[in-house]
C-alpha cells in the first residue's frame, strides 16, 4: 500500500499534468490489485485494502483541485473494484465482501484528505464519500456484467451500511452520514 501511495504522491514531482493523473492512478491501482496476492506476509484482501487506502491518501499530494480529487476518487475505487476478478492467484476472493472492505478502507483514507484540504471549503466530505460509493457500485456492476460471481443486491446493501459506518468515523454531522 505504501508503494502505491508513494507513486501517486510522486506524480507531481514527475510533472504529471492534472489531466493525466487520473489515468496514472488507474494504471497504478489496477496493477496493485492484480498483484495483491503476491505481497509477502499479507493476504490479497488486506493488500488491496492497503493499496486503495494509500491511493486515496496519495491524491492529497497531487496538484489536483478538490473537484478533480473528488472525481478521481470514484474512478480509483471503480478501477479497484472492477479489477477484483483479475487478482493473480486470488480466485477464492469473496468479491462482495472485498468490495465493502475496499469501500471502507477508501473512506478511511479520506481522513488524510480531510486534513490536507482542511482549509479548503470546497472539499466536502459528503461528496467525497458519494464519489467513492459511486465507484464501488459501478465497479460491482461491471464485475457482475463480466460474469463474476457477485450478488449485487447484497453487496450494495452491505456497501451502504459499511460506507455509513466508515463515514461516521470522519464526521458527526448526521445529515452527511445519512446521505
How would you describe this structure to a colleague?
By secondary structure, the protein is an all-alpha fold. The protein has eight helices and no strands. The chain has helices at residues 2-9, 18-34, 44-58, 66-82, 95-116, 125-145, 152-168, 174-177. The mean pLDDT is 83.
SSE topology:
Elements: H1 2-9, H2 18-34, H3 44-58, H4 66-82, H5 95-116, H6 125-145, H7 152-168, H8 174-177
List keywords for this structure.
179 residues; single chain; 8 helices; mainly alpha
Amino- and carboxy-terminal Cα gap: 29 Å
Give, in order, the helices and strands: HHHHHHHH
Low-confidence stretches: none
Structural class by sheet pairing and helices: mainly alpha
User: What is the helix tally?
Assistant: 8
Helix share of residues? 55-70%
Largest sheet: none
What form results from the Cα inertia axes?
A: globular
The radius of gyration is 15 Å
**Extended strand count:** 0
What percent of residues are in strands?
under 5%
Look at the structure and give the mean pLDDT.
83
Task: Provide a quick synopsis of the model.
The protein is mainly α and 179 residues long. Helices cover 68% and strands 0% of the residues. The protein is globular.
Amino acid at each position: 500500500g505504501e508503494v502505491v501511495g508513494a507513486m501517486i504522491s510522486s506524480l507531481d514531482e514527475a510533472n504529471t499534468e492534472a489531466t493525466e493523473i487520473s489515468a496514472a492512478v488507474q494504471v497504478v491501482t489496477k496493477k496493485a490489485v492484480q498483484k495483491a496476492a503476491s505481497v509477502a506476509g499479507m493476504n490479497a484482501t488486506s493488500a488491496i485494502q492497503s493499496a486503495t487506502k494509500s491511493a486515496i491518501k496519495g491524491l492529497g499530494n497531487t496538484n489536483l483541485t478538490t473537484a478533480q480529487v473528488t472525481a478521481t476518487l470514484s474512478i480509483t475505487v471503480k478501477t479497484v473494484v472492477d479489477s477484483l476478478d483479475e487478482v493473480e492467484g486470488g480466485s477464492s476472493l469473496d468479491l462482495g465482501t472485498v468490495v465493502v472492505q475496499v469501500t471502507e478502507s477508501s473512506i478511511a483514507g479520506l481522513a488524510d484528505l480531510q486534513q490536507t484540504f482542511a482549509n479548503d471549503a470546497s472539499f466536502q466530505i459528503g461528496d467525497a464519500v458519494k464519489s467513492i460509493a459511486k465507484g464501488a457500485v459501478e465497479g460491482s456492476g461491471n464485475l457482475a456484467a463480466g460474469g463474476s460471481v457477485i450478488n449485487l443486491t447484497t453487496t450494495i446493501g452491505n456497501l451502504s451500511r459499511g460506507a455509513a459506518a466508515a463515514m461516521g468515523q470522519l464526521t458527526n454531522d448526521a445529515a452527511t452520514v445519512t446521505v
